[in-house]
Amino acid sequence: MNVLVTGAAGLVGAEVCARLTRNGHHVIGLVHRVRTLTANNGRHVRAELVTGDVTLPRLGLDEPSRRLLAARVDLIVHSAAITDFGRPRETYEAVNVAGTANVLDLATEAGARLIHVSTAYVCGEQDGHILETALDARQRFGNHYERSKFDAELLVRKAAAEGLATTVVRPSVVVGATRTGVVREFKNIYVVLKLLSEGRVTAIPGHFDACVDLVGVDHVAALIADVAENRADGLTLHAVGSSVSMRHVSDVLAEYPSFRVPRYVAPATFSPAALPGVERAYWDRMLSLYESYFRRRQTFDDTAAAGLRTNRRATNGPDQLRKIIDYAVRAGYLGAPLPGVDEALAEVGR
Ligand SMILES: NC(=O)c1ccc[n+]([C@@H]2O[C@H](COP(=O)([O-])OP(=O)(O)OC[C@H]3O[C@@H](n4cnc5c(N)ncnc54)[C@H](OP(=O)(O)O)[C@@H]3O)[C@@H](O)[C@H]2O)c1
């Protein structure tokens, strides 16, 4: 197969490219600013690269290049997106929504199948067990990112209704490899864990029984490669791993001697203004972007995904969390070394 992967240099995209090339497919990676593909294990992925921008008509390619691409491609895996939080709404709309529309145009012109990489969090802030078939429940969204991914899924559904063969894959929170915790870069949940474990923010508004789902990047990529090879037209698949409650987060952080453990306070009584100066700055600029995730009580059904060949390895939430933290500590991202005896004595003597 000739497969075009957008966002090919990203965490998920590069891992998908690695698997598809390993399985003998010809991969064309659409790259943007970063122009090398590095798999999650740090290895370079060799693939044909095309530089483009999904926000532009024809993905920013000149007409002959686009026509050539459309003539060759059998399948598009659309993984390009703005994935960090806190940007202006227009940025998410341009890349995640209009970018998806441009990719759909190419898929239609090429007569290619599309695997659209969405997010389980298109469900927004609604609580409960979220089905893969669910999309519009008049939910409130936690941020512009979620809203944009929802709007992109609507576009994909419309194109599917008009005859395009599509599959939507919705990962939850993507973390390091399921068995080893190894991850190429520390973003999203790792930033939250860093701020909490270093005591930069000591109180957060949330519930002990709120939960997030963590999925290894290996599982997400394996599921996408499985759909690429075996098709799952018309389906939406939750690429999820294990559910981790805020109680698990507290309990697991407490197992690490050098880590601080946050206090949870009732959301209704939380006031950022009452936080001490530096803590308030960390809250306002960083942790507040994730605020609603400390309150949500969501789990994700993955019946359709489980019907594919790629079986999710059963993992338990706290174990998965320990694994990713252990790796982040080994890599030097989390955890200050404990003071030696001399430093500890000097502290006491002060
Ligand atoms: N990571 C997660 O926790 C998570 C969870 C659920 C769903 N997802 C979804 O999974 C997909 C991949 O996520 P990821 O974690 O791999 O994200 P990532 O590491 O941030 O990669 C995103 C890729 O998109 C590219 N991109 C951004 N703007 C572009 C543009 N205008 N034109 C072309 N390419 C552009 C980026 O290229 P440059 O960096 O070179 O600009 C980057 O390679 C996304 O659709 C995301 O919504 C991710």
Automatic annotation (TrEMBL):
GO cellular component: cytoplasm
Pfam families per UniProt: NAD_binding_4
Signal sequence annotation: none
GO molecular function: aldehyde dehydrogenase (NAD+) activity
Domain named Thioester reductase (TE): residues: 44-224
InterPro entries: FAR_NAD-bd, NAD(P)-bd_dom_sf, NAD(P)-dependent_oxidoreduct
Protein's recorded name: Thioester reductase (TE) domain-containing protein
